[in-house]
């Protein structure tokens, strides 16, 4: 209890008081673990192929607080478990997109940018905890940016390692901590016009990052569940270091299709990755999320 409370308090403190920058990872606010899906059970000494497909989706508005580039968002993600040995190890392919729209057209919904990730993820159970290793390729592209006469494109990939640990809290609750390390092997950024290429904070200089996620869920009256989560990410560049962070509160329930959640979130991005001149943004939004039970937290 003390460990989890300390992590949540630290996340909140950082979001309130710290001004910093870091790159935008799509999977930043969740914990993916194919071995945690309660609907997939492989017997001892058995190996199975193409055992499950899972994923998540979300849609919402930054109507409470944002900037000229952020009005609406949509996240879509999926994973395919291509190999599993018992309930001990797993190999999965994963891919996800983050779509951002602003209000700069006659219907107040103008596509602005898209972020893309795909990766290969290996998961291994160690008692009640899990370790993961993988490689993720990521990129960002502008959409309908002709009116700006500017463009910012990024490509970056990393070798990653994660450890995920359960935390014992209240009776009936479910809480996890996850720690992730990324070592970047591909870093590229192109800004148009070229006069912006040598401006502040260039993703060409990415070296490595560290991220911690905390998630908590507690059954409420009836079939509803309370969900709390947050993340804090620090990034090291060649000449500087920066932070991103988020806190989120939701309520929802389990269905035959998975978990359905509705709630609020507040996020600080030191560099949103959208304007050709790097710019920080604080986002406060409301949205709905649907995800595979257990394997997405």
- Using the coordinates shown, work out and report the CATH topology: Porin
Mean pLDDT: 89
Percent helix: under 10%
CA distance, first residue to last residue: 19 Å
| Secondary-structure content class | mainly beta
Counting H and I runs of at least 4 residues, what is the number of helices? 1
Hey, roughly how much beta strand do the residues contain?
over 45%
> Strand order, biggest sheet?
1-2-3-4-5-6-7-8-9-10-11-12
Principal-axes geometry comes out as globular
Describe this structure in words.
The protein has a single domain, classed as Porin (Beta Barrel), CATH 2.40.160. It has one helix and twelve strands, in the order H-E-E-E-E-E-E-E-E-E-E-E-E. The protein has one helix at residues 2-17, and strands spanning 47-65, 72-85, 89-102, 110-126, 129-142, 151-167, 174-192, 206-219, 224-237, 241-255, 258-269, 281-291. Strands 1-2-3-4-5-6-7-8-9-10-11-12 form a twelve-stranded antiparallel barrel. Strand 5 (129-142) and strand 6 (151-167) form a beta hairpin. It is globular and about 60 Å long.
